[in-house]
């Protein structure tokens, strides 16, 4: 477990800023008073309270499996990919949101993109290729993705057009449980 390098920090924060924007400050400077930090362990980025990090220093690296919340991982090429385990924080601080109808929840949880026929609501002035958190109509975060069109363009599309490209969803806990952690 080690702190992120400057390049790794830039990659993580740029990916997070695509989803939560300026609310990124709330992850680092928590209003509850307890400081949190990002740490890298076996190509995975963890978000954890500073007191927990100080306690974990006494554990040898081979014996440490996981700690805190896994926000994502770095690929072999050095790109950062957000994990579905970060959804609690993304949902809390998301700048742009999409709500899908009940008949669209299951296809999204199976890993399909969100089409216009399943779209319930969308945040106003959402730009194209912007990271969004996908909610059910009862405000339960289901996953996250990237918009294919802006809010203005979605009104003109036919019902089978893709609105949100799927990135991750809570169904991954069942589909990829052997490789998730």
UniProtKB/TrEMBL annotation:
Pfam families: pre-PUA_NIP7, UPF0113. It comes from the Eukaryota. CDD domains: Nip7_N_euk, PUA_Nip7-like. It is found in: Nucleus, Nucleolus. One of its GO terms (molecular function) is RNA binding. GO terms for biological process: assembly of large subunit precursor of preribosome. Residues 96-171 form the PUA domain. Required for proper 27S pre-rRNA processing and 60S ribosome subunit assembly. Interacts with pre-ribosome complex. Belongs to the NIP7 family. This is 60S ribosome subunit biogenesis protein NIP7.
